[in-house]
Design goal:
- With about 450 residues, the chain is mainly alpha-helical.
- It has one domain.
- About 75% of the residues lie in helices and about 0% in strands.
- It has helices spanning about 1-15, 20-35, 40-50, 60-70, 75-85, 95-110, 110-130, 135-145, 155-165, 170-175, 185-190, 195-215, 225-235, 235-250, 255-275, 280-315, 315-325, 330-350, 350-370, 375-385, 395-405, 410-430, 435-445.
- It is globular.
- The protein starts with a helix and ends with a helix.
């Protein structure tokens, strides 16, 4: 078992070191390991087919397509405008509206880089216009863009729910905590609401203190209820999109997968007949962008599923469970270790790949400790959302750098305090399970 684990991880990291794309690194290391243990590689194809053929996975290309149409149809632009009108003449108001805009758009797109790009195109120039430091404006947009994968609906939450299927847990844990339950994606969605608000609230406080300390001037316009009302009226169709998506899921009218299809028809109707901004050319571009991104995700899912199955078959999660529980019996210390691991992995690995690789490894650990899988999933996604803003991978940092024209290094220096504050918020969420579980228990019992 040790030699198999050593071969699997050594080849994987070797491929990454020489610059191989993550999907190819996962697949190639899995094939080499399968050949080493003298198993038929055709099993890889069978596992991959089952992975990409699951019904919940249909939600991913559907939500990506819906998010692309929303931007093309002017829905995201109106959501940002609503957030901006709330700024008024408050200290740090434009920065606060950037955080709110990321919450609005994140509730639709489910993607960190997409949220950073959509909001950053409008809000970074607006913050610079209101005398914010350009480096800080780009950093704030990058840090809050990660909220897109915490606020439902979230593509990484769908991936986590799928990755949790068929997880093998130690027998002792089963006898102590009862049969292992698969993770409900609907519960994951609603469990992310309060943690998302906690992290965004911590960033709002930091933004206020930063603007106060650096004497950033207030917006010239006074806050006006009439302006807010007008923006909400103009964007009523945009505001209705999250209500339709989440309301339908939580009331049981349709599943998360079905809600994605409903969303597509809704935004097509709004873009073509209400806003009248969706053209055939824009629609073709949306289809092209969706096909490219969805295909990339499916390829990673296929190879990561095989990689994860090798880990499970060779009982690597069991070894990690025993190592962690022998190290300490304190649930809080184990949480800190897990958060540190997730933060470190998030610095180097793409979010979806990290979820698919780490879920089979870490889920048995938390189940042994009696931690709710939904709570763990929320904490994992919160940790990995911070990874969007941490170098060297830091996808949001690169997006914000491209939009603002600010060097990557300068944005990194400005974003580090926000990363620290967000990490402290995640630790609080991990230590207090009810922050994640209260809403699901309220709705589902």
């Amino acid at each position: 078992m040790v030699s198999i684990s050593f071969l699997l991880f050594t080849t994987f990291f070797l491929f990454l070191f020489i610059g191989t794309p993550i999907a190819i690194a996962l697949g190639a290391s899995s094939i080499i390991t399968y050949l080493f243990i003298d198993q038929d590689p055709i099993k890889l194809v069978q596992l991959g087919f089952n992975a990409v053929g699951s019904f919940p996975l249909m939600a991913i290309p559907s939500f990506i397509f819906a998010g692309a149409i929303m931007e093309a149809a002017g829905i995201s632009k109106r959501l940002v405008k609503i957030a901006e009108t709330f700024a008024g003449s408050f200290t740090g108001g434009i920065g606060a509206s950037t955080v709110m805009a990321c919450l609005f758009f994140g509730a639709i797109s489910g993607s960190g880089p997409a949220t950073t790009a959509a909001v950053g195109m409008l809000m970074i120039p607006a913050m610079v216009k209101h005398k914010y430091n350009k480096d800080y404006a780009a950093a704030l947009t990058s840090a809050t863009g990660g909220l897109g994968i915490i606020i439902p609906p979230s593509i990484p939450m769908v991936i986590f729910g799928i990755s949790a299927l068929g997880i093998v847990v130690p027998f002792d844990a089963l006898s102590e905590h009862g049969p292992f339950q698969s993770v409900s994606i609907s519960k994951m969605f609603i469990a992310g609401v309060i943690p998302g608000l906690i992290i965004s609230g911590s960033l709002l406080i930091y933004n206020y203190l930063y603007c106060k300390k650096n004497k950033v001037p207030k917006a010239s316009e006074n806050w006006s209820f009439d302006l807010v009302l007008k923006a909400c009226k103009d964007g009523i169709w945009s505001l209705s999109a999250p209500i339709i998506i989440l309301g339908g899921i939580y009331t049981g009218l349709f599943t998360p997968t079905e809600s994605a299809i409903v969303t597509i028809f809704y935004v097509l109707f709004v873009g073509a007949f209400i806003h009248k901004e969706l053209t055939w050319k824009k629609l073709a571009q949306c289809i092209d962008d969706t096909a490219w991104l969805a295909g990339r995700i499916m390829l990673i899912l296929l190879t990561a599923t095989v990689f994860g199955r090798l880990l499970v078959e060779n009982q690597i999660p069991v070894v990690i469970v025993e190592a962690l529980t022998s190290l300490t019996s304190s649930q809080y210390l184990i949480w800190l270790i897990i958060i540190a691991i997730l933060m470190f992995i998030g610095m180097f690995m793409e979010t979806l790949a990290a979820i698919m690789i780490l879920t089979p490894v870490l889920l048995p650990v938390i189940y042994t400790l009696g931690i709710d899988p939904v709570h763990f999933g929320v904490v994992m996604i919160c940790c990995l959302s911070i990874g969007f803003s941490t170098p060297p991978l830091g996808e949001n940092l690169f997006v914000a750098s491209a939009i603002s024209g600010t060097p990557f290094e300068k944005i990194t220096r400005q974003v580090m305090p926000m990363v620290l504050i967000s990490t402290l918020a995640v630790i609080i969420i991990a230590f207090v399970p009810q922050l994640s579980l209260w809403l699901p228990s309220l709705i589902y019992g």
